Amino acid sequence: MKIALIGYGKMGRMIEEIAKARGHQIACIIDLDNQEDFDSPAFAAADVAIEFTTPTAAYANYLRAFQHGVKVVSGSTGWMAEHGDDVRRLCTEEGHTLFWASNFSLGVAIFSAVNRYLASIMNRFAEYDVTMEEVHHVHKLDAPSGTAITLAEDIVARLDRKDRWVKGEFRHADGSVEGTKDTPADALRIDSIRRGEVPGIHSICYDSEADAITITHDAHSRRGFALGAVLAAEFTAGRSGLLTMSDLFNF
Description:
By secondary structure, the chain is α/β, with parallel strands linked by helices. 34% of the residues lie in helices and 26% in strands. The protein has helices spanning 10-21, 41-44, 58-67, 80-92, 106-122, 146-156, 223-236, 245-248; strands at 2-6, 25-30, 48-51, 71-74, 97-100, 129-136, 164-171, 177-178, 187-194, 201-207, 212-218, 241-243. Strand 7 and strand 8 form a beta hairpin. Helix 1 packs across helix 7 and helix 5 (106-122) runs parallel beside helix 6 (146-156). The longest helix has 17 residues, at 106-122. The protein is globular, with a radius of gyration of 19 Å.
């Protein structure tokens, strides 16, 4: 399979390594300094493009790939609030293909399934309040993380006592703090921490006067995300439409 890479940072390089090890060809690499290569024959010949860039660049990258009929696998977050409806329309009505996930890790896919099941159970026990904390490296631009938002939306969909998620306390790498932990009873609070080179830690806590139940996913490296992105590309090559991890891993 021919893969184009959009974004060539740490994730892009790791994806390249894993894709080659699995027998795939890197047809084209696009980064900030060669945006004109979106219009190259090499890019147009790709079976799938894997995109890991920034919230501000992702949507435009999708559009440029779709112009050349190239399917996209993307782990960029932060664009959905503004452009989600248009991307859904492009994939459901105009025949384009995007596999999007806030997190491509197999472990996170399993963790997400556990989260949904636990939330369904806890809907019967109103004495437990639920909160979430996500920790990431200092280079991450968006907060809360896309993974945290996805996990929170799954909880809100299953807990009658929670109507929405809200940003809670945000601890920056320099030690400064913004936001608050004071949250309305009908809202799920997501606290964010930025420190060091943490690949990603997500913890969900159900707390009551009697006890607390906490589940945590702790990524040891970015390698699991990169492998998942290549697996998603292999899956996407023969499919169309708007795809997610639920399509790849049916837990």
